[in-house]
């Protein structure tokens, strides 16, 4: 059995504009709000599988369509075409070091909007792959109380300085650090142990900054690992999840649900 998948059936589409950007968003569910930022190449069936799992777990989920074609399945050509477009996007700044990314202003506005019309103590933001670090940068917004960063891959890890880069500007990181001290903010990070796209050095940078407020789940993808992950395993919460029987990625997904409930309903 492969990774859980789903479709756009039952999702309400609407445009959301903020900070000079305008994207379609897809919303579904009831309960505390969670913004799910899709991974490359976009809102795939696997991303929808995760989103529907969160809806079924009692959350209102909003997915902004930042790139790609919503509902389209993954393929090598589709991924490469998406990467080519976002690499030159001033909105995303894929290679910039210690940089503010304009898309995170948009995501903060989206999170604040969702927080204003859903129950709970703020909202969660979950980013994956290219957008993993966006979730943490979005936590500059005070209503974001549960940032989840899965395999954060920006800036692309070309060179040592980019591998250690936290994926945001120093001012943004300092604001997030201050929130861990004054607001009790906690951050959940996930990666595979051998994943060069989401380098261990980036997590070490964040550990030094965030301390005990940074909970890390690192799944074993070394040779001979119990779940049979390849050395190239990357997407913790989508393509690598197996539920029959459940593997460690499914357990990580369970922990994400628990983290969101703890942070948004207490």
Low-confidence stretches: none
Supply the CATH architecture: 3-Layer(aba) Sandwich
- Rg estimate, integer Å: 17 Å
Name the beta content range.
15-25%
Q: Termini separation (Å)?
A: 36 Å
Describe it.
The protein has 266 residues and is α/β, with parallel strands linked by helices. The chain has a single domain (18-265), classed as 3-Layer(aba) Sandwich (Rossmann fold), CATH 3.40.50. It is 34% helix and 19% strand. The chain has eight helices and eight strands; from the N terminus they run βββαβααβαβααβαβα. It has an eight-stranded mixed sheet, sandwiched between helices. It is globular and about 45 Å long.
Element layout with pairings:
Layout: E1 12-18, E2 21-28, E3 33-37, H1 45-56, E4 60-64, H2 76-87, H3 102-115, E5 123-128, H4 132-138, E6 144-150, H5 160-163, H6 170-182, E7 187-192, H7 200-210, E8 214-219, H8 248-265
Parallel strand pairs: 3-4, 3-5, 5-6, 6-7, 7-8
Antiparallel strand pairs: 1-2, 2-4
Provide a compact summary of the structure.
By secondary structure, the protein is an alpha/beta fold.
């Amino acid at each position: 059995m492969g990774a859980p998948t789903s479709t756009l059936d039952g999702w309400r589409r609407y445009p959301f504009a903020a900070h000079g950007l305008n994207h379609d968003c897809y919303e579904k569910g009831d309960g505390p709000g969670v913004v799910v930022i899709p991974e490359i190449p976009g809102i795939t069936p696997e991303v929808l599988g995760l989103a529907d799992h969160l809806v079924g777990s009692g959350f209102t989920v909003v997915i902004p369509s930042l790139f790609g074609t919503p509902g389209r399945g993954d393929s090598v050509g589709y991924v490469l075409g998406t990467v080519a477009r976002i690499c030159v996007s001033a909105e995303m700044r894929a290679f910039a070091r210690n940089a503010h990314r304009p898309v995170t202003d948009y995501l903060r506005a989206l999170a604040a909007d969702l927080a204003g019309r859903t129950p709970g103590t703020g909202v969660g933001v979950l980013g994956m792959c290219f957008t993993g670090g966006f979730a943490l940068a979005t936590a500059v917004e005070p209503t974001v109380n549960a940032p989840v960063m899965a395999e954060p891959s920006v800036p692309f890890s070309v060179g040592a300085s980019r591998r250690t880069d936290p994926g945001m500007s120093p001012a943004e990181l300092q604001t997030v650090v201050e929130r861990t001290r004054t607001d009790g903010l906690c951050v959940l990070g996930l990666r595979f142990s051998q994943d060069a796209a989401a380098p261990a050095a980036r997590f070490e940078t964040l550990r030094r900054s965030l301390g005990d407020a940074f909970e890390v789940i690192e799944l074993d993808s070394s040779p001979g690992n119990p779940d049979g992950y390849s050395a190239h395993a990357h997407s913790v919460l989508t393509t690598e999840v197996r539920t029959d029987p459940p593997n460690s990625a499914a357990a990580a997904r369970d922990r994400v649900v628990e983290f969101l409930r703890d942070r948004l309903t207490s």
